[in-house]
Amino acid sequence: MVAVGFHRGVPEDEGLDGVVFxxxxxxxxxxxxxxxxxxxxxxxxxxxxxxxxxLCGYTDKSKRHRMSPQTLFRGYSMMKPITATAFMSLVDxxxxxxxxxxxxxxxxxxxxxxxxKNGQGLEALKKPMTLCHLLMHxxxxxxxxxxxxxxxxxxxxSAEEKHYKSLTVxxxxxxxxxxxxxxxxxxxxxxxxxxxxxxxYGMSLDVLGHVMEIVTGQPLRKIIQTRVLDRVGMRxxxxxxxxSRTAHLAGYYRLMKDKGxxxxxxxxxxxxxxxxxxxxKGSAAAxxxxxxxxxxxxxxxxxxxxxxxxxxxxxxxxxxxxxxxVSGKRVLKTETVRSLLGDWLRLKRASDKPDPEGWGxxxxxxxxxxxxxxYGPHAGALYMGGMSYFWLDPRRNIAAAIMTETYWQVDPLGxxxxxxxxxxxxxxxxxxxxxxxxxxxxxxTEAAKRQRR
Length: 453
Prior knowledge:
CATH architecture: 3-Layer(aba) Sandwich
Strand order of the largest sheet: 1-3-2-16-15-14-13-12
CATH superfamily: DD-peptidase/beta-lactamase superfamily
Shape: globular
Number of strands: 17
Order of helices and strands: EHEEEHEEHHHHHEEEEEHHEEEEEEHH
CATH class: Alpha Beta
Strand content: 15-25%
CATH topology: Beta-lactamase
Largest sheet: 8 strands, mixed
């Protein structure tokens, strides 16, 4: 990863305990040997240096291609902060206003209906839906039923999912295959909640993506490519791969177990070969024209973007650099990134209440980039993703990317978050190094006292 602008670092030189990282590496290897996943890729940055890298195993069970910093993983909701970054660059440019009403760009959103709280009947909008509401999932839009992969039946398990099920089926079938078509259909459905009143994770970013297309006159993919990927230096990240690049594509599995036994096994979900994947151009499973979602999810569990370990680290470092890429290109204004790394649920124009209905935790907040830790030694830390995810602590200038392509239908035996989740391992490495320094200082002070005697 030195080739893309990172320097190698030693954990101890950056205030981290390297022993903690090596113990973690050993545990991940044990999980690999037990068959929890065919491969795993993770790394940590501190002060712009790579202080830990763990490329474990292979891209799939055939063991033909080793895991690498360029291996591609389905991003799912990891796309949301990418889309949010592209949108905020338009705000920085003055192309759009953060609090503009959505109907300024999509007129059919002006007279939306809203389901009443008691579920009985509809009511009119009490205030316009804004672009900020879309960015924050407080727009009143939700998601339909999801699936781990196309071909698995869609089952609506809530009133919200039932509300959008037919739309999701039409997305999967290709009847709704653009953001423009999606917005036409969403405008015909009542909102789940009044804008600003509730948090509902859903298709808000897809509507925002179409607004971006309207104001720029460009397709979303070009907007993201030119405003985020090119500026950050994310050369691996893509929406589809050519057959010649399938060696870089991680196989998609789910961890299973049979009734009455504890042994786990992996079931492949994306065809028997990498060439069969829905993310390979020309494959029978590929979505015609490519998956159009701006929020990373479309239809029956399709992901829009594919990310590599090194590209996710480059994105994290851009945020830690307050909007400037490793190569020095400006992606966002400094004050914009500073704002994005805060808890927007506490902003009245984003959410009526700091903990709106639908939001699940008092300990965690939300920003357009993802979850924000509100309390504890790493208050202000940000994390976001799907199966793969990133974590960063702006105060300590630390970041981590954890990439996997295994869906856990069942829990892996022996997995302990405090030892196996890299973000928690980093926090332990910080604390242990701090204790060692304090102990060494105490020992030095005591030795100096003895000499004076």
